Structures are given as C-alpha cells and as structure tokens.
Amino acid sequence: MEARTLTQRAPAAAFRPFIAALRRHLGGWGLIAALAALPVFYAIKDLSSGYQTGIVHGHAVVAHNLTLLGTNLVQGISNGAIWALIPPEPAGSSSGSCSR
Question: Is the model's pLDDT at 59 over the cut of 90?
Fold first, then answer.
C-alpha cells in the first residue's frame, strides 16, 4: 500500500480551536519551558539521590547538594560566551582549515 492512498484525518471541529491555541502558546513558550525544566529536574535529582564525588577506603562518597549543577551552569554560560565571540563565516566562503 502506498502512502498516498491513505487520507489524512483532520482533527474534529470541536478540538480545532483548542489545538490552535495550544500551538500558539507552545510556539512562544515551549522552548523556554523545556530549557527551564532541565535545571529543575537535575536539581531535584541531585538533592534526592545525590551523585558520586569520590571513593574513600573503597566506598563511594555520595553528595546531596547543588554543587555539580552550579558547576555545569557556569561552564555552560562560559562556553556560550566563548561561542558568541566567534564571528560567523561570510556567505560564500569555503569552510575548512586549509585554504589555498
């Protein structure tokens, strides 16, 4: 069976305004919500289950704090600032490190 033989079903008329509003709302705030949810998830995970910070006398040392999350945030901001300083290549120029 070919894909073109199947007809696409449109959503029911009652759900169209809801779907349109959902798309409008998620289109503007979806990425921001997803990016804000990740640090919250990792903060809860670090506080509840902890993470291994080392080994002492053959036993794992587990820390339950936000040090790792803070370190990751600082390194991410630093790396983003470094990438922001690199100018983009002009259009039409060849990419590569060796130019002749």
Answer: yes
